[in-house]
Specification:
The chain is an alpha+beta fold and 233 residues long. The protein is built from eight helices and five strands. α1 runs antiparallel to α4 and α3 packs across α5. 24% of the residues are buried.
């Protein structure tokens, strides 16, 4: 049933087989127990050579366990993902998590601001740090369905150095990974640092949630070198 040519398919299939085998031996008494089993299984499976290079996928599945609706059995969600295995690597949530991993590999520091009152504090705490920071202002559970499809755009505030080169590398990375990027505004935090607000969406979002005009969607400068698309693995 599994396919060596689709490692995400293989990972999902292995999780479901392990879950069902464990449930037959000793039935799970709650959804929490079922998710705890999967979390422990993922910890062990990370060392399996079959899943080498799949850090983004393991991170995404952990995020799914932690944030998806506990009223929906997680094995049902995984079964839906498996049934669409030929396209699962194009799933919005997988692509989004992969993009965040690429940002971190390029030196960005990421933080999720779950409450609006935390935004100013987070920015001020990082103002003296010369590194690039991306504050995610939209909760993952609000922006993505349990099956991984995007239903709301995600808003970021980027903390940047005013004189840094490649100040648009976040926009370029999201664009390269297939997302639409809208730069909402840019403010000076002080004489060294800038705050830039980005909205990230997809063409498949409902028009009531995402309908930017084409001239507002960010495009790479014409004289920039083509960006090599990063691999999931």
């Amino acid at each position: 049933m599994s396919s060596a040519d689709n490692t995400v398919h293989n990972l999902l299939w292995c999780i479901l087989i392990a879950l069902r085998t464990a449930d037959q031996e000793k039935p799970f008494t709650s959804e929490i127990a079922r998710r705890r089993f999967i979390a422990n299984w993922l910890d062990t499976a990370r060392g399996n050579p079959s899943f080498r290079g799949m850090n983004a996928e393991f991170t995404t599945l952990r995020q799914l366990l932690e944030t998806s609706d506990k009223a929906v059995p997680v094995d049902s969600t995984l079964s839906v993902l498996l049934s669409h295995a030929t396209a699962v690597e194009q799933c919005d949530l997988f692509r989004f998590r992969s993009t965040l991993n690429i940002l971190m590999q390029k030196g960005w520091r990421l933080v999720i601001c779950r409450f609006p009152e935390n935004i100013t504090t987070e920015l001020m705490q990082r103002r003296q740090d010369r590194r690039k920071h991306a504050l995610q202002l939209t909760r993952m559970e609000n922006a993505f369905q349990p099956t991984g499809y995007m239903v709301l755009p995600v808003t970021f505030q980027l903390l940047l150095n005013r004189t840094a080169e490649n100040n648009d590398d976040a926009e370029l990375i999201f664009h390269t990974e297939g997302f639409q990027v809208v730069v909402a505004n840019e403010l000076e935090l002080d004489n060294r640092r800038l705050i830039r607000t980005l909205h990230i969406g997809t063409p498949s979002l409902p028009t009531g949630e995402w309908s930017p005009s084409m001239d507002r969607i960010w495009q790479p400068p014409r004289n920039s070198a083509p960006s090599k698309k990063e691999s999931y693995h």
